Amino acid sequence: MRCLNCHLEEITASTQICPRCNVHLPSLMHDVLSPGTVIHQGTYRIDYALGRGGFGITYQAVHTTLEKRVAIKEYYPQEHALRDTSTGNLIVPTAKKDIYERGLSRFVTEGKILAKINHPNVVRVENFFEERGTAYLVMELIDGYTLREKLNRQPNKKLTNGIEVIISALVDALATVHAQGIYHLDIKPDNVLLTSDNRLVLVDFGASRQGLNNCTTSQAFTLDYAPPEVLMGKDFGIESDIFELGMMLHEMIVGELPPRAIDRIFNDNWQENLHPDLIEPWKSLIISALQLQKHTRPPNVKQWWRLPQTQTLHQTLQTYCHACNASNPKTHKFCTSCGTPLQVAISTNKQPEQQNYSEVHPDDWTKTQKKGFFKFLGSLLDDN
Questions:
Q1: Could you say which of 107, 133, 352, 380 is the most buried, measured as most Cβ atoms within 10 Å of its Cβ?
Q2: Spatial strand order in the sheet of 144-146
Q3: Taking the mean position of all CA atoms in its chain, how far away is CA 68?
Q4: Could you tell me where the DSSP H helices lie in 198-357?
């Protein structure tokens, strides 16, 4: 048995109090499917519950024919349904039926979409079925540990290497699911699994939470990581996942979270005292991700991840004016400082070679060097 509060493993079935967190286990487990329960016409047999939240319970189970371990996620919003312990079916009060059905519909849609996604960093959905008045997602069982556990084992609970690999994998995973219209909405180290063969997997997607956010008091997010729009339960999207990814990135680098969004609403001065560990490019990435207003964050997770590369290129790939030595973006044809035509080439030092130019700024003839035909044409236009 596993404690659903602190996730301590290998607790005996007769244990009443968790030896780690002191929670009363029978109270915590009273409405979960009991070990040995068979579902989907005997295809799967429940071993024990792995975890639970306000909107579902995840079990370890066995495919009885293939003798393969799997994870099964059951849609079970505790505020809107009850378990009939004699049958295992969920009972939904009439007053809650519309809300329950809305969340169930999103859960079903999410399962069907995830089942079509084949990405190494997204948990794989292997089957989907409905019974007992609810729905179930059958997923691969990840044999590993959470990023939270990894951080807890580090000095000062922060990583000194491997951050880029982790974020890059998560960006790739999120870009894939965002393209299918799915948002995670609960990105945190607890929902990132790491395997012994260095695979990283993002789990616990949140379509079912989207269906209930406006109609429930259960926490449909993790307060420490959530952006304002998720706190309010509306208008969330890709930018919401970027915010939570930025919160987690800060935690991985510094060893602690930045101020919560809810604490910044009336006093948003956290950037004035950034931790010294936040050097570039991480500093720019985090600042851009943690903007309180959704529309001021990058609209695309890969665009956000390319931000430091773009800034580096902007700083190093410049065209320099031969006349005044001012730096200009490489796409400009004329110096923004003095109007002199620029070489259509990239230089990284401020001592460019002298060049012959065949273009003259149309608004500033008198300040340019006139050579050849342009010198002759200029003389015709000169009153003297």
A1: 107
A2: 144-146, 192-195, 200-202
A3: 30
A4: 207-210, 228-232, 238-254, 261-264, 282-289, 301-316
Report residue 344 as tokens: 């259509």
Phi, psi dihedrals of residue 316, rounded to the nearest 5°: -105, -30
Q: Which amino acid, 357?
A: Y
Contacts of 189-192 with CB under 8 Å at 24 or more apart are 189/146, 189/147, 189/148, 189/150, 189/151, 189/248, 189/251, 189/252, 190/146, 190/147, 190/148, 191/146, 192/146, 192/147, 192/148, 192/166
Distance separating alpha carbons of residues 201 and 119, to the nearest angstrom? 9
Please give the structure tokens belonging to residue 64: 């009885």
8 A C-beta contact, residue 110 and residue 205: yes
For the CA atoms of 207, 210, 211, 215, what is the dihedral angle to 10 degrees?
Answer: 150
For 49, counting Cβ atoms within 10 Å of its Cβ (0-12 exposed, 13-18 middle, 19+ buried), the class is buried
Dihedral angle of Cα 284, 286, 287, 291, to the nearest 10 degrees:
140
**Residue appearing with tokens 């109007």:** 339
Domains and CATH numbers, the chain: 31-140 (3.30.200.20), 144-314 (1.10.510.10), 322-384 (no CATH)
Task: Give the span between the Cα atoms of 123 and 169, in whole angstroms.
Answer: 13
Where are the strands (E) in the chain, listed by range?
38-39, 44-53, 56-63, 68-75, 82-83, 90-91, 125-131, 134-140, 144-146, 192-195, 200-202, 318-320, 327-329
Phi, psi at 12, each rounded to 5°? -70, 150
Residue 227's identity, in one-letter code, is P
**Can you tell me the distance from the alpha carbon of 32 to that of 64, in angstroms, rounded to the nearest whole number?**
20
**What's the pTM?**
0.74
- Bridge partners (DSSP) of residue 70 are 61, 140
